[in-house]
Design a protein that fits this description.
Pfam families: ABC2_membrane, ABC2_membrane_7, ABC_tran
Number of strands: 16
Subcellular location: Membrane
Bound molecules: adenosine-5'-diphosphate, magnesium ion
GO molecular function, one term: ATP hydrolysis activity
Strand content: 5-15%
Largest sheet: 6 strands, mixed
Keywords: ATP-binding, Membrane, Nucleotide-binding, Transmembrane, Transmembrane helix, Transport
Region (Disordered): 18-86
Helix content: 40-55%
Strand order of the largest sheet: 6-7-8-3-9-10
Length: 703
């Protein structure tokens, strides 16, 4: 049959999908979409207690249709096989049924033709149910990630979404932290070992009602489930440290998200980078978990082997954002065969489907049945149209509308650990990361010691001559300006931290406040170290104001300044998350502030608009400089070399007349102002993240 002849057929003439045994050896029998199922049809799983059996029956009565039931047959066979996931009571709480109707996502066209949006996915219908794994397949660029993002409520702000998504029969979009999502790229703390990463994550996410040893055990089991036992003590590694392989990192990412056995799990290409055996085991174990814990799993997947393919319950096949097929995996072969694309024997069915619908390398391809030639685009069109008119599509629509009508529980937010636990765990984790990451503080410590020695030797034994007044001013300004400026060196490491925080926050592991607390407390010992050691070197070599109280104030002020710069860079990172741009922006801001410190231009000479008001009052260097100068000069006497004047000149006089400092308040006030600024900047960081979070979730809801 020619393609054109085929198009002209009336719907009644079109070959339709009918339930029949799949040509593959799939153990899943053909689907019959009956919403009800009698309890006698439910089979026992060998590892199930009677209480669980009863509970499962109830859940099945509510949700499960025939394909799910048939998958249970399959499960009972599989459960006899090698790996049995730990027996634990199923967690209480509602399951998640996801259904979507006419889902479309588009982005504004970048070209000048305004109003013509580029459609990424178009009119998708489908559903995902507890205990089942839905596979989304399609050539790269077909919209798999976009579909997952739309369902998880994570579409970027430049997209427009139409259609409805029902979560447990409620018309809603999933918000922050309501589901677990393993994204396509792995964002992990590179300095931690697999065991540490998973264990800390377990502590962060699991409820306080579980004991620490139970959480540890859960982490260990999950590591085993993902086949990472052999690599548990290996560091994850990144661009600077060689650690895990790509496939192992993938599995660590999955591990972290399945720790809580989430009710709804999105996986974007979980098997990329894995060998075929690892892919099989990973998908098999996820499928087992999903059945055991009644998890709803949606995974996009590339190139599954036949064995992996048969582990899925439903298949959503996309090409250029359109549905080619949505329905039971076992019926896909039938559908392709009836529409003229039977898969050749000895081929992997998924390979065949993808080959049939990948138009990126468009060439004429041989049509299975008649040996006539047709282009891939025509094949896609033909299959998409055939699907729309098929009986299976009607059944999917019916199923979707049935699921939409059943109102269930509201989905709860992710982590159940208390704020205190989260803060303590984050502090510990962050402390360890800072300890192991050379770039965070150690390199800076080295550079600061070097600079401390430079300053110390250049201004060695500064003395109390009249000329030392200017020299003291320069030393102190250099310390406050340069040492704080170099805090930018730790920015790339902080941006890495922010990326991990972004992923964990989206998945609801913990909140912004816990992150801020953890980051603040963990950095204190390092900041003390990098301000005390180089500070002492410079202070005593130069021979600044004698007396330990003066040195302690000097070190304390340096420490608060370091903390303040870190806070400023946090705010920068929350606005410009790219590290190169962040460094440039941060350096620019600090450069402008240093100019207002009252050294390069004396306070009275600063132009009133902008530089005096408000910059002189905003610039933290001004307060830092004031504090350092007051600490240094107050109480010292210098010889006066001006003719006609008194023989000595006091430190207070110098501060007032030479440095033009306001003397109405003490150095402690400057310290307090700086400390207040630390708090203010950290609150600003907190508010920016919170606001962007709110904006994002409300824009998702209002789409
Ligand atoms: N936010 C976006 N803005 C512009 N184009 C996008 C956006 N998201 C996705 N796309 C485009 O949509 C297509 C599908 O992308 P994606 O869903 O990532 O594909 P897949 O995951 O199937 O490989 C790609 O061509 C991609 O360039
Ligand atoms: Mg993708």
């Amino acid at each position: 049959m020619k393609f054109s002849d085929w198009i002209s057929l009336s719907p009644s003439n079109i070959l339709r999908w009918t339930p029949a045994a799949s040509p593959s050896s799939s153990p899943v029998p053909p689907p019959v979409f009956s919403p009800e199922i009698s309890s006698s049809q439910v089979e026992d799983e060998p590892f199930m207690s009677p209480a669980h059996h009863h509970e499962l029956k109830q859940q099945l009565d509510q949700y499960v249709d025939e394909p799910a039931k048939s998958s249970k047959k399959k499960n009972s066979e599989e459960n006899k096989s090698s790996f049995v996931i730990e027996m634990e009571p199923k967690s209480e709480g509602s399951t998640v049924v996801l259904a979507w109707e006419d889902l479309c996502v588009s982005v504004p066209s970048s070209s000048s033709s305004k109003g013509n949006d580029r459609v990424i996915i178009e009119g998708l219908n489908g559903y995902a149910q507890p205990g089942e794994v839905l596979a989304i397949m399609g050539p790269s660029g077909s919209g798999k990630t976009t579909l997952l993002d739309a369902l998880a409520g994570r579409l970027p702000s430049n997209t427009r979404q139409l259609g409805v998504i029902h979560v447990n029969g409620r018309k809603q979009t999933l918000a922050f932290g309501t589901s677990a999502y393993v994204t396509q790229d792995d964002t992990l703390t590179t300095t931690l070992t697999v065991k540490e990463a998973v264990y800390y994550s377990a502590l962060l996410q699991l409820p306080d009602s579980m004991t620490t040893s139970e959480k540890k055990e859960r982490a260990e089991t999950t590591i085993k489930v993902m086949g990472l036992h052999g690599a548990r003590n290996t560091k994850i590694g990144g661009w600077n440290i060689k650690g895990l392989s790509g496939g192992q990192k993938r599995r660590v990412s999955i591990c972290i998200e399945i720790l809580t056995r989430p009710k709804l799990l999105f996986l974007d290409e979980p098997t990329s980078g894995l060998d075929s055996a690892a892919s099989y085991h990973v998908v098999n174990r996820i499928a087992k978990l999903s059945r055991q814990y009644r998890m709803t799993v949606i995974a996009s997947i590339h190139q599954p082997s036949s064995e992996v393919f048969n582990l899925f319950h439903n298949l959503c096949l996309l090409s250029s954002g359109r549905t080619i097929y949505f329905g039971p995996v076992s019926a896909a072969n039938e559908f392709f065969a009836l529409n003229g694309y039977p898969y050749p024997t000895m081929t992997n069915p998924s390979d065949h489907y993808l080959k049939t619908i990948n138009k990126d390398f468009d060439e004429d391809m041989e049509q299975g049945s008649g040996g006539k030639l047709t282009t891939t685009e025509e094949a896609i069109y033909k299959l998409a149209e055939a699907y729309k008119t098929s009986q299976i599509f009607q059944q999917v629509k019916l199923q979707v509308s049935n699921l939409c009508k059943r109102e269930g529980g509201i989905l709860e937010k992710g982590s159940q650990a208390s704020f205190l636990t989260q803060s303590v765990v984050l502090t510990r984790r962050s402390f360890l990361n800072m300890h192991r990451d050379l770039g965070y503080y150690w390199l800076r410590l080295g550079a600061y010691i070097g600079l401390g020695l430079c300053v110390g030797t250049i201004f060695l034994n500064i003395g109390t001559s009249f000329g030392s007044i200017q020299a003291r001013g320069s030393v102190l300004l250099f310390v406050v300006a340069f040492l704080t400026f170099m805090a930018i060196g730790g920015f790339p490491s902080f941006v890495e931290d922010m990326k991990i925080f972004g992923r964990e926050r989206l998945n609801g592991h913990y909140g912004v406040a816990a992150f801020v607390v953890g980051n603040t407390i963990s950095s204190v010992p390092y900041l003390l170290m990098i301000s005390l050691i180089p500070g002492a070197l410079a202070y005593y070599l130069v021979g600044l104001h004698k007396g330990y109280q003066h040195f302690l104030f000097f070190a304390l002020l340096l420490f608060v300044c370091m903390m303040l710069v870190e806070s400023l860079m946090m705010v920068v990172a929350s606005i410009v998350p790219d590290f190169l741009m962040g460094i440039i922006v941060g350096a620019g801001i600090q450069g402008a502030m240093i100019l207002n410190a009252g050294f390069f231009r004396l306070p009275n000479d600063l132009p009133n608009p902008v530089w005096k008001y408000p910059m002189y009052y905003i610039s933290f260097h001004r307060y830092a400089n004031e504090g350092f100068y007051k600490n240094e000069f107050q109480g010292l006497q210098f010889p006066n070399n001006q003719i006609g004047g008194p023989s000595t000149i006091s430190g207070e006089e110098i501060l007032k007349t030479i440095w033009q400092m306001p003397m109405g308040y003490s150095k402690w006030v400057d310290l307090a102002v700086l400390f207040g600024m630390v708090v203010l900047y950290r609150l600003m960081f907190f508010s920016i993240i919170k606001l962007s979070e709110k904006k994002k979730s409300s824009s998702c809801l209002n789409r």
